[in-house]
UniProtKB/TrEMBL annotation:
InterPro entries: HAD-like_sf, HAD_sf. Gene3D superfamilies: HAD superfamily/HAD-like. This is HAD family hydrolase. It comes from Kitasatospora xanthocidica. It comes from the Bacteria.
Length: 73
C-alpha cells in the first residue's frame, strides 16, 4: 500500500535503524549475524536468506499489511 513500509535487513544495526524510523523490520541471515542477535535487535521474523524469504513470502510479515508501519512524510 502506498504510504506504508516494512524493512528487510541483515544486521542488528539494520533492524535497529528500522525500529528508529519506526518501521517493522524483517531480517535475513546473510549479514553474518545469527537469529538470536537479529531478534534481540527487534526483527519480527528471521529468514535463512532472501530465497527463503521469497519461498515463504505468502506467509511472511511482508504478506500481512497489519505489520506495515505508516511512512512519515
Amino acid at each position: 500500500m502506498p504510504g506504508e513500509a516494512l524493512f528487510v535487513g541483515d544486521t542488528p544495526w539494520d533492524v535497529q535503524a528500522a525500529a528508529g524510523a519506526p518501521v517493522t523490520g524483517v531480517a535475513v541471515l546473510s549479514g553474518g549475524f545469527g537469529e538470536r542477535a537479529l531478534r534481540s535487535a527487534g526483527a519480527l521474523e528471521v529468514h535463512t536468506d532472501v530465497g527463503d524469504l521469497l519461498a515463504r513470502l505468502d506467509s511472511s510479515a511482508l504478506a500481512d499489511p497489519t505489520h506495515f508501519q505508516p511512512v512519515r512524510g
